[in-house]
Design brief:
By secondary structure, the protein is α/β, with parallel strands linked by helices. It has a single domain, classed as Spore Coat Polysaccharide Biosynthesis Protein SpsA, Chain A. It has a 7-stranded mixed β-sheet with strand order 5-4-1-6-10-7-11, sandwiched between helices. The radius of gyration is 18 Å and the shape is globular. It starts with a strand and ends in a 21-residue tail after the last helix.
């Protein structure tokens, strides 16, 4: 059985979240920060031997001040990200121990993850070398110009929306990071596709939402109620009304 390492990507700027106190991975959700819900989905898996969370350089000091006890209890390694998502994931990859065969990258701002989805994408990734969760596009897609006017209706046939976790063999991911890319990739699958590697899609769920706006927190809270919750003990940092975190 391959050994998995998980990179939690939490180094974005959260520009669309529009909250003066919190970046989205650190916002309170059902009594815990968003990132902790995401991390807990991987903690008790026998096939996961390492978890790395990547935060922005400007957040490192505050993150450690607030969550150092949680990191120690959970056995999570901290890495510092870079200017682009790929820089941040590369930083997390560099923290992986030599025993890691497979690497899963998961958005720290996707807290509503079911064990069954992880099981399936891990299994397909281990078999094929590259797999991601995704959902088929079901709505009607419109391409809209800068003036707000529709320019065309886009055929949705064969279109899927990528999610995370995205799972790759370590060798494949390291090869993908070793080449130069003309444009900054928006996910790891795009990096891997660029080296000619086939990436298999595993059907996910709309419940596996990525928190982008504050309204998404309300949706995520309801979604969490429908998912089995990990039973973990240890240090917690409940949010007081006057606590502030970007």
């Amino acid at each position: 059985m391959p050994t998995f390492g998980v990179i939690l990507a939490a180094a974005g700027q959260s520009s669309r979240f529009q909250d003066a106190n919190y970046k989205k991975p650190f916002a309170p959700l059902a009594g815990r920060p968003v990132w902790m819900h995401s991390a807990e989905r991987f903690l008790e898996r026998s096939d996961v031997s390492q978890i790395v969370i990547v935060v922005a350089p400007e957040d490192r000091e505050g993150f450690l001040e607030k969550f150092a006890a949680n990191l120690a209890f959970m056995g999570i390694t901290l890495a510092v990200g870079g200017a682009q998502r790929s820089d941040s994931v590369r930083s997390g990859l560099e923290k992986m121990g030599p025993d890691i065969d497979m690497v899963a990258i998961h958005d720290a701002a996707r807290p509503c993850l079911a064990t069954a989805w992880i099981d399936e994408v891990f299994a397909v990734g281990a078999r094929t070398g590259a797999a991601i969760l995704a959902t088929p596009v079901v709505g009607t897609l419109k391409r809209v110009g800068a003036d707000g006017v529709i320019t065309e209706t886009v055929d949705r046939n064969g279109l899927w929306e990528a999610q995370t976790p995205q799972v790759f063999s370590r060798d494949i991911l390291e090869k993908a990071f070793a080449i130069e890319h003309a444009h900054a990739p928006t996910d790891e699958a795009q990096l891997v596709e660029a080296i000619g590697q086939r990436v298999t899609v595993v059907r996910g769920s709309p419940i596996n939402l990525k928190i982008t706006s504050r309204e998404d927190l309300r949706l995520a809270e309801q979604a969490l109620k429908a998912l089995p919750q990990p039973k973990l003990s240890g240090p917690t940092h409940p949010f007081a009304d006057d606590e502030k975190w970007r």
